[in-house]
Amino acid sequence: MQYIERELERKFLSMAGVFKAVMVVGARQVGKSTMLRRLADRQGRQCVTMDDQQTRELARNDPKLFFQTFKPPLLIDEAQKAPELFEMIKIICDNTEERGLFWLTGSQSRKLVRRAGDSLAGRICILKMYSLSQRELLGICPEDSLDFSLDALQKRSRLFPDNNICDTFEHIWRGGLPDVQALDEEQLREYFNSYIETYLMRDAVDDNGITDTEGFRKFLRACAAFSGQLLNYNDLAVSAGVSGVTAKEWLKVLQSMGIVHLLEPYSSNELKRLIKTPKLYFCDTGLCAYLSSWTGRDVLMNGAAAGHFYENHVVGELLRNYAYGKESVNLNFYRDKGQKEIDLVIEKDNTLHPLEIKKGTAPDRRVVRTFSVLAATGKKLGNGGVVCMADAPFPIDENNCYIPSNIL
Q1: For the chain, how many structural domains are there in total?
Q2: Which tens digit of pLDDT belongs to each residue from 153-185?
Q3: Would the pTM count as exceeding 0.85?
Q4: Is 218 helix (H, G, I), strand (E, B) or coil?
Q5: CATH code at 116?
Q6: 367, 334 in Cβ contact below 8 A?
Q7: DSSP code per residue over 233-297
Q8: For residues 118 and 35, is the Cβ–Cβ distance under 8 A?
Q9: Residues 288-327: tens digit of each pLDDT
Q10: Which residue among 129, 152, 187 closes a domain?
Q11: Is residue 3 domain-resident?
Q12: Last residue in a domain, options 129, 156, 191
């Protein structure tokens, strides 16, 4: 498969110019090693992988000799398999002012991030990588930050092909793992089955000490069934046949593995009666579709869960956009005990940008009336709108637009 340029490349190289070590973490098979090896090749940087048993044993048993053998600047792939290296990396970093000495990749885990953060505090930048976005698959990565004003959206939309629900749901059903992009339906099913057994179950057992593997498989499927909905530990526990305590712990495991994302509710001292329950989303919709037994694009697109999957897709695209971008934002949703809800509230520079997510081409414009509840926060209410399958950005009122989901 031809290499697909990743949006994270810009941010990674920028951080490598500031920090002595930069580590990319993320779920299995999202393309971490491929991206960093390509960047390393451009620089003539030496690469070493901890997948190699002999190299791994050297790293674990004699880190000092390891770095005499493999001198920085260096790319260390699968760094989580030799955490003994971190203390030696700290010593080397402290004895030089050179930046970008160490590039590291690691499958996302609580242990790895904590170990790296503790050992290399102030010396390392940890970046998260997701599976491919629809922008990356199209090869369109706009330089401008996402702006929800009508003029900016119209300018952005000129870069993209027409919005098409079949293309959108093909991406939703297939997902963004690089290795699945050219597979047919039969191959895709076998890939995800192998992905779960080879990677997820092994990591659950080896890294997280889970012994009830059958229960964990059921829990994975239960999470997929509740994707895009308010998190209910009791429902998850019942579906998987485990206790509520176990359900909470296992969800933390899936978060740490980069499989699910919990979108936290918006909170404000000025707003009362807000719910405190997060919403559950999958980081890759293809894995979610497989776990939910959707066998093809069309059955998913026309099925009862289409709205939830579309919402999951939009949230995922925005997560990627802001994770790789230059801006710092807070991404939340709003819901109060009076059932008023806003699918996404993006807070940037003390300004709130509210978004609704609807699968139709021209959803009811009255949904933006709910945005007025945010006025009580005392913060500025910025541009927002309804993310949907509209053909082009179109004004709803002076602050809000219909926003085609393919341009996010």
Answers
A1: 2
A2: 999 999 999 999 999 999 999 999 999 999 999
A3: yes
A4: helix
A5: 3.40.50.300
A6: no
A7: HHHHHHHHTS-HHHHHHHHHHHHHTTSEEEEPBP--TT--SB----EEEES-HHHHHHHTT--SH
A8: no
A9: 999 999 999 999 999 999 999 999 999 999 999 999 999 9
A10: 129
A11: no
A12: 129
